[in-house]
Amino acid sequence: MKNKINLLFLLSISVAGLGFYWKRQQVKNREYHKKCLYLAVLDDAIARLELEGKEISGKKIRFPSREDSLWYRYELFLQMYAKEKKIVSDVIRQSEERLRQDKEEKNL
């Protein structure tokens, strides 16, 4: 009887630990997705600020709708940083700095 109680106790601790681990992974995943979306917004803003109104080979640069552009960039960043999730924060910092500098140059 005592062995059954010990076994049930260990089993319940294992299930609780697994549940905690799964919940923690969900939170990390959610944070990663938020960071990728924020990075997509930053990247889109930088591209539009730097390239709006410019020409390449005599053709004016045109952007797709912001919604399409953000969705594409978001999916791209999810794939690009899937194996190196820790560097997303550094890339965000660099992008924020670049956007700030671009805005200062254009006096926005």
Description:
- With 108 residues, the protein is mainly alpha-helical.
- It contains three helices and two strands, in the order αββαα.
- It has helices at residues 2-51, 66-80, 88-106, and strands at 55-56, 59-60.
- The protein has a two-stranded antiparallel sheet.
- Strand 1 (55-56) and strand 2 (59-60) form a beta hairpin.
- Helix 1 (2-51) packs across helix 2 and helix 1 packs parallel to helix 3.
- The chain is elongated.
Mean pLDDT across all amino acids:
87
Strand content: under 5%
Order of helices and strands: HEEHH
Basic shape: elongated
Largest sheet: 2 strands, antiparallel
Uncertain residue ranges: none
Work out the helicity level. Answer: over 70%
Question: What is this structure's SSE topology?
Answer:
Layout: H1 2-51, E1 55-56, E2 59-60, H2 66-80, H3 88-106
Antiparallel strand pairs: 1-2
